[in-house]
TrEMBL record:
The chain crosses the membrane at residues 15-35, 42-62, 82-102, 109-126, 132-152, 164-187, 207-227, 247-268, 280-299, 306-324, 330-354, 375-397, 409-430, 468-489. This is NAD(P)H-quinone oxidoreductase subunit 2. Keywords: Membrane, NAD, NADP, Plastoquinone, Quinone, Thylakoid, Translocase, Transmembrane, Transmembrane helix, Transport. Its EC number is 7.1.1.-. It comes from the Bacteria. NDH-1 shuttles electrons from an unknown electron donor, via FMN and iron-sulfur (Fe-S) centers, to quinones in the respiratory and/or the photosynthetic chain. The immediate electron acceptor for the enzyme in this species is believed to be plastoquinone. Couples the redox reaction to proton translocation, and thus conserves the redox energy in a proton gradient. Cyanobacterial NDH-1 also plays a role in inorganic carbon-concentration.
Length: 519
């Protein structure tokens, strides 16, 4: 093979956005080594600039005629472009909200940024990985970086405990996932590309064997851990409560988005023979996640822990789009994850700001906050109402699109359960809003009574203010001006050949009468 053919097969330009993130990571590392702790004044903005450039590079590849790279190991199709952009955006907002938090803890900001960029890189590669080895390496890059971020506050016993729990459960889930994909490798006759695996299993003549079903169950277990679906959610509340809050914000969006990207690509491409089985399993996961996540959130006294259970319930809502297995279903997943990025990170920005000023995240301590900090009260109110699905905010249209796609696909029971659990979720979101706004001056909490004078001149507070305002503005406007996002989500599905061929195949199988299938 000559050099020209090798370069064409590699098609390295497809991973230009990831290359930009790698260069940014190295620049932050070298800058910190040369300058030392004083690099904290400019490294966050360098990281944000690098991630912003990567997002621009992503959308320059929207109409890429040849998205397959690295001998079929990576697919830069429009679906992966959108998911990679969501992960990069979540990293940008996380950096904005983490500057003051990390500096106040006395730890190195540059090291934090390097690990965060590595996790972002793992998530971006996972969103486009189309081959088993690349999937696993990307998954572990994201996972190991997440463990390091979780235990980043080394002097905080809660952070150490959260990291240890996350590491132990995460290592077990990775082992289970690896065993599942190794079964796929064997059943397909030694193939590692997802499309070749499906063809190898179909040509092998084994049909729906017990080995294929076990591989499916193990693969779903690994995916469910990443998206925090019940019953693979055990790590979520404790890790969210003990981890640094900016890390929790990234895990709730970036890691979850990468998990859903993996779910779509792996299940649709490699498991077409057992599509009924994985639909059944994910239906059970969606039901359990929506019920447990939203019901248990009612009893929480910590806002951080409440948002942890809320994210479990949100994973159940997004799973409805995956189960629908239609153009509208997948597009509704993309749209919801886009708006979830801003409304959830906005809530965490407000949580970080309040905890920095008061040292607590107890819901009862928010009583009367509107009298001392109207901006924080407004920002948190908008984001919580959007998470609850209250119009005219973005979350309402996201849930409407998901439920409509599910209803069109005949998932009537699942949609009705989603509506009921959404109503339940509104109660615990409104409880926080009521605590901030409705309380009389004499009912003000001790934390709010001792609330410090509002000043944005302290190092790192200005980026946090920007992240709060940015997320609130987008959450508000994305609901009113949602058409561009709807179009983006729909185009990403219609322009992805993998999904279109899978949907056509599903419709063809569904149209064959039962006697012919039996023959």
């Amino acid at each position: 093979m000559n050099f020209a053919n090798l370069a064409a097969q590699l098609n390295a330009g497809t991973i230009l956005p990831e290359g930009i993130v790698i260069i940014t990571l190295l620049a932050v590392l070298v800058g910190d080594l040369i300058v030392g702790r004083s690099s904290a004044r400019w490294t966050p903005y360098l990281a944000i600039a690098g991630l912003g450039t990567a997002i621009l590079a992503l959308f320059s590849q929207w109409n890429n005629p040849d998205p397959i790279a690295f001998f079929g190991g990576f697919n830069g199709d429009p679906l992966s472009v959108v998911f990679r952009a969501i992960i990069a955006l979540s990293a940008i907002v996380t950096i904005l909200m983490s500057v003051r938090y990390v500096e106040q803890s006395g730890t190195s900001l540059a090291e934090f940024l390097m690990i965060l960029l590595t996790a972002t890189l793992g998530g971006m590669f996972l969103s486009g990985a189309d081959e088993l080895v690349m999937i696993f390496v990307s998954l572990e890059t994201l996972s190991i970086s997440s463990y390091l971020l979780t235990g980043y506050m080394k002097l905080d016993p809660r952070s150490n405990e959260a990291a240890l729990k996350y590491l132990l459960i995460g290592a077990a889930s990775s082992a289970v996932f690896l065993y599942g994909v190794s079964l796929l490798y064997g059943l397909s006759g030694g193939e590692t590309r997802l499309s070749a695996i499906a063809a190898g299993i179909a040509n092998g003549g084994t049909g729906v064997s017990i080995g294929l079903v076990i591989a499916l169950v193990f693969a779903i277990a690994g995916i469910s851990f990443k998206i925090s679906a019940v019953p693979f959610h055990q790590w979520t509340p404790d890790v969210y409560e003990g981890s640094p809050t900016p890390v929790v914000a990234f895990l709730s969006v970036g890691s979850k988005t990468a998990g859903f990207a993996l779910a779509i690509r792996l299940l649709v491409t490699a498991f077409p023979l057992v599509s009924e089985q994985w639909h059944f399993v994910f239906t059970a996961l969606a039901i359990l996640s929506m019920v447990l996540g939203n019901v248990v959130a009612l009893a929480q006294t910590s806002l951080k822990r409440m948002l942890a259970y809320s994210s479990i319930g949100q994973a159940g809502f997004v799973t409805i789009g995956l189960i629908a297995n239609t153009d509208a279903g997948y597009a509704s997943m993309v749209f919801y994850l886009l708006v979830y990025l801003f409304m959830n990170l906005g809530a965490f920005s407000a949580l970080i700001l309040f905890s920095l000023r008061t040292g607590t995240d107890r819901i009862s301590e928010y009583a009367g906050l509107y009298q001392k900090d109207p901006l924080l009260t407004l920002g948190l109110t908008v984001c919580l109402l959007s998470l609850g699905g209250i119009p005219p905010f973005a979350g309402f249209f996201g849930k409407l699109y998901l439920f409509w796609a599910g209803w069109q696909a005949g998932l009537y029971g699942l949609v009705l359960l989603g509506l009921v659990t959404s109503v339940i979720s509104i109660y615990y979101y409104i409880r926080v809003v009521k605590m901030m706004v409705v309380k009389e001056p004499q009912e003000m909490s001790e934390a709010v009574k001792n609330y410090p004078a509002i000043s944005w001149n302290l190092p790192g507070l200005r980026p946090l203010q920007v992240s709060l305002i940015l997320t609130v503005v987008v959450t508000s406007l994305a609901g009113i001006l949602s058409n561009p996002l709807f179009s983006l989500a729909n185009d990403s599905i219609e322009r992805t050949p993998m999904l279109q061929s899978a949907l056509v195949q599903t419709e063809t199988v569904a149209s064959i009468p039962a006697p012919e299938l039996a023959d």
